[in-house]
Amino acid sequence: MIIQKIITQIRTPLLVYTWINNYQSIYHDIRKIKTIVYIILSLLVIISCFSVASISLMTISKKIQDIAILRSMGASKLTIQLIFLYYGLRSIFIGMLIGLLLGITVILNSKKIMLFLEKNFPENILLNNIYYNHFLLLEINLLDIIIIFSSIIIIGISTNWYPAYYASKINPSKILKKY
User: Fold this and answer.
1) What residue segments make up the domains of the chain, in order of their start?
2) Among the four 57, 65, 95, 121, which has the fewest Cβ within 10 Å?
3) Model pLDDT for residues 24-60, shown as the tens digit of each residue
């Protein structure tokens, strides 16, 4: 926009080169790496969701007698669902806080960590010939943290909902007959 104003004022053709024009192959490589990282992280989140759901289902299978007793004492299906949602979300919040603390610690100490790795590993695991790690900019962005927290809460609720729903569908008369 500023360049267009300058062109209209000087009324001569102006040829502008940007960083993207000069280093287009590097820019495309960075975009490809970014896409690959997003895909890998998405797959990691999906695998984590399945593991959280399976852990919750295993907990329910171990607590099936307790659930049947609660149901026979008059606990509603919603109460059973809320109990298991609470315990599932509690573990997710603990993991989220641990991840936040570790992430902030790594970001704030990234230069020290890189210097430590360069000093103690002579085979150079940071690949200085490909990426110059002194230009790696890591910063804490509050909007990113909010987006991540809200995504984790949504994923946590959706992951724990099915096991909680399954627990609420347990018929106490069939379970208590076995015991």
Assistant:
1) 52-178
2) 121
3) 888 788 889 889 988 998 898 889 888 888 888 888 8
